[in-house]
Amino acid sequence: MTRISSSELILNPDGSVYHLKLKPGQVSNDIITVGDQNRVDQIARHLESIELTVQNREFKTITGSYKGKRLTVISTGIGTDNIDIVLNEIDALFNIDIEHRVVKEELAKLNFYRIGTSGAIREDIALDSFIISRYAVGLDILLRYYDSANVRALAIEKSLKEVLPNMQYAVASDDSLMDDCASIGQTGITLTAPGFYAPQNRHIRLRPKQDLFKTITDYSYQGHRITNLEMETAGIYGLSKLLGHKAVSFNAILANRVTGEFSSQPTKTVDRLIERVLNRIVSDS
Q1: Does residue 10 lie in a domain region?
Q2: Is the pTM of this model over 0.85?
Q3: Residue of 125, 142, 174, 256 with fewest CB within 10 Å of its CB?
């Protein structure tokens, strides 16, 4: 087997992976990802016990137990550049023999559940509702750095070329996780943007080059509309599939970009979503 050099898989002096500062055995096979490190504690309040808390930079990890099931919660920070770090380093903890720096013969398969916040781009999508991303469309370029054609939703990409010229790739959620979690909210197509302002059609002093919403109003694919914007889902879906894992993304709708409204109870809305996802994970065990 080819040995992975120390410049490619960087380890800290204690043997933990470089950015996450985690060691093999410290992460569950069921992993909840959140963007905001404060949301890790919001989820941890629901856990019956906590065995581990580790933080380095924006990456905060808690592993504990909920209704007898071992879970890990980790903050990724904002954007698919951070998703690239988190997904690869977590996979390494399971599928690389850290001591000998070789890929293991038997590979672990992990479940990733993203709990995030998002803005709806349809007037009829209510504030404080939940959307499950059936497909994620990357306006970022992360997956273009990987040989990813075999995991991408090429039919959606083809149909979106004229509608979304900045579209880079599209990926579907895992079918089995999607089916298990369908009762949590409505499904849709999520756009993953590489920024918060112009890439998501926002403007304060600088205006977007084009009106993103006008170009996607009438688009649908197999009955699925483009429903919301955020900044991580497409990267999670793409890397999960490439690495042989499963992923599903849940979005708490805190803003409606069409009506210009923002939730008056964002913390309560996210907490409701957390409870639903936790109970769904447990019921599937």
Answers
A1: no
A2: yes
A3: 174
